[in-house]
Amino acid sequence: MKVPKKGITTILKTGILIAAAVPLGPSNAAPQSAQFGPSNPFYAASTLPLQAPPFDKIKDSDYEPALEAGMAQQRNEVRAIAENPDPPSFENTLVALDKSGQLFHRVALVFNAVTGANLSSKLEKLQEIEAPKFAAHRDEIFLDSKLFHRVAAIYQKRESLKLDPESLRLVEHYYQQFVHAGANLSEADKVELKKLNEEESTLSAAFSNKLLAATKAAAYVTTDKKALAGFSESRLKSAAQAANDRKAEGYVLPLQNRTQQPDLASLSERATRQAIFEDSWNRAERGGTNDTRETIARMAQVRAQKAKLLGFPNFAAWKLRDQMAKTPDAAVKFMDSMVPGATAKAVAEGKDIQTLIDAQKGGFTLQPWDWDFYAQQVRKAKYDLDEDQIKPYLELNRVLEDGVFFAATQLYEITFKERHDIPVYHPDVRVFDVFDADGKQVALWYCDYFKRDTKGGGAWMDVFVNQSKLLGTLPVVYNVANFPKPAPGQPALLSFRDVTTMFHEFGHALHGMFANTMYPAISGAQVARDFVEFPSQFNENWASDPAVFNHCAKHYQTGEPMPADLVANVKKSAKFNQGYALTEIVAAAELDMEWHTLSADAVLEKVDDFEIQALKHKNLFLSAVPPRYRSSYFAHIWQDEYAAGYYAYLWAEMLDHAAFEWFENHGGLTRENGERFRRMILSRGNTEDLGKMYSAWAGGEPSIEPMLKFRGLVPDEPGK
Ligand SMILES: [Zn+2]
Predict the structure, then answer these.
(1) Which of 130, 349, 395, 505 is catalytic?
(2) 505 CA to middle of ligand 1, Å?
(3) Residue 651 Cα to ligand 1 middle (Å)
(4) How confident is the model at residue 705 (pLDDT cuts 50, 70, 90)?
(5) Is 505 a catalytic residue?
(6) CA dihedral 229, 233, 234, 239 (to 10 degrees)
(7) Which end of the chain is less crowded, N or C, counting CB atoms within 10 A of the terminal residue's CB?
(8) What is the pTM (predicted TM-score) of this model?
């Protein structure tokens, strides 16, 4: 089962110089001001293990002065580099640039984490104030012509500098970042670009806050237990708990960030399903202050105007230039090639469901809110499987320790030990030491798994501290998810989809934790978007690998392993409903690309009309199969830097299945395979052209066949 996740959140849209903290020496002292001095917990690098953030000391009021001081400090550092009287050298320009901004990054990484997973109204306001400032700060660096001239001078003579390959990559990386950001523009155009960048980031922050409020407000609330017929006792309890948390009567079903809501699979009251679906579908289209439509229509326009200024026909062309796919045409061709197979399969699945509805004398035509409920029954009939049968075998702690950690130990010989002395930003957060085979510490890893209203939707990974040999830092990495929180004293029982999410995010975490590079800007998971989901989606494969699955799928009460026929059915049913699953993702990805291939002179679009036209144009307008995200709540593209990049999940899926096939052909879950993957991919960050890095590891270009086979879109070979 493949479920795209939110993935890597981008660091406050600075997207640059993501350096970790080091102790500030006298020459590197943070600027003091009335608001910012040694009493601020961000003032110096944390003295906690691996410079873990001191959450026991950080107050909401500490962020603003620290962010402001951090930006001021980096401005001074960058000015000193730009105005250095010595001729530009790799050391005095690029290394110096990569070392700059340590205070800013120290604060920004923590601010980013907390605003994503534990937002307060104070921080929400601060985020709206700071977002345009971050954009302006980034522009100030990348549009500085003196600085660009130094970088360009080094770039021109890079071949003669006898740099090691990673240093050479750093030169190319920065040069392209500058050109990409508009450093080659005239001064007048730079002013225009800065304005557009600030407007874009203000719109994005506004979108994000509107959507959070809209999603919270659109939760389904009822005091009528009958409306929730079909729920298990434990699901009812957690819905009651959610109501209690909000001081509401009855039951509350908070919305997930995607179109389809997992609860629809079990709710037997059709009216309830329809109400929940409509709450989800219209969450951000209800008029009033939380309606996002005007915001996104303008954002699409601003992005198109930006691209034009930078010399590109549209935003996607500008955005994809440094991606593995390289052009929108390549990405669109790749997606278009999946549409006929995916939609044909979805239509066939819909017919099976309609047959079941008719057999039950339902007397209605299949609608999106019926899909999961009946698909679940079709699946049960075909595979004798329902989620509630599986869940008792998938208890969170067991899955984590005997599944996620176990697979990593088998492959990479790393081990994990929970510790309770590292401060966290919320009591649900847990912290683990990660050790290498030789006993040396590799990283700190945090997990924050349960849903709450202060947390954004989806699941993601990011870092508090980036690995860098230059700065002498080891990675401090975290995973966030939105699993339903069990009632107190109850075990957290997961769906297989949640289990896959755990493996997915942990795959990102491995990419961050195994980072072993010199320069912070090209370390760990800071790679092109259509590559970043490769380690995570690859890691999902272990969730259903028998050696791992059988090791962790044990009944939470009896410890009995999941019965063999149930296991076989879980595996078989992974291919079930793949027509729907792929179609909803391709529809969202094509929609993203349609929004971001608009030209600069396009009129302000009417969001709903545009969406319908785009889907029709792509043969993806299926009444029972809506896109995974509607434009008005498509956070990936309006908020999380996946603009013109949602296709990347599918692209990376092609890589991950091709890679898993390689593993299977070479003995599967072995130490040797893991070591090779770690050495050639997971530890390498962005230190080489990613296409070349992949081919060197795999021994050739990736093929789409293993992915289509996995999705059940091409016939299996007999006997498989
Ligand atoms: Zn991801």
Answers:
(1) 505
(2) 6
(3) 12
(4) confident
(5) yes
(6) 50
(7) C
(8) 0.81
